[in-house]
Amino acid sequence: MNGRHELKHYISVSDYVQLRSRLRVVAKLDKNARSDGGYKIRSLYFDNYSDKAVVEKLAGQSRREKFRLRFYNDDISFIRLEKKAKINHLCYKEKSAILATECQSLIRGDYDCLNIPDNTLFMELYSKIRYQNLRPTTIIDYRREAYVYPAGNVRVTFDSDIRRSNLVSEFLNPNLVTIPAAKAIILEIKYDGFLPDIIRDILHIGWRKRTEFSKYLVARLV
Fold first, then answer.
1. 3-class DSSP assignment, residue 205
2. What is the pTM of this model?
3. Burial class (CB in 10 A: 0-12, 13-18, 19+), 209
């Protein structure tokens, strides 16, 4: 599993309008996009009673990880369990499909559905639930607009309308009422070994100050 670079920047609404118009000339819109060009993401994050993931992020630890369940556009027919890790400024992601019924079991506290020896990601979370006391903690919704560019395996996203809920039992409910967590538009640029000059120039990367923005952290601290 190869690590990817990930850059994040706060941008204004006017920035967003200008940048998306430039990107559309050279990059393709993500396949998940709806008619408005974006799509909805819902994630349920795991943490423990000591707020391990929050503490690691605040401390700026060079090695940290988060587990989450995720689905798109309110479609619970395809849900993924994901582990996102950061090691020395590179990001790593593992993912595995998980059934809605298995998600319901996790939310109820029945973790044996993860005890599947052939699934290494399930088994890792199962172990850390037992030994680190990880539990479903926070739901985060947001809108994402994403563009892909083949050279460098570049993915550029604009994330906005970031909302949260602590009612984890309603994770699969599309009508769950969430509350605003951040009034921000976040530009994220993810790429493999290099960032092509055309993307760097379009997004004015050299002019922008990076941020360590974390949707999960913001949702937990508001």
1. helix
2. 0.94
3. exposed
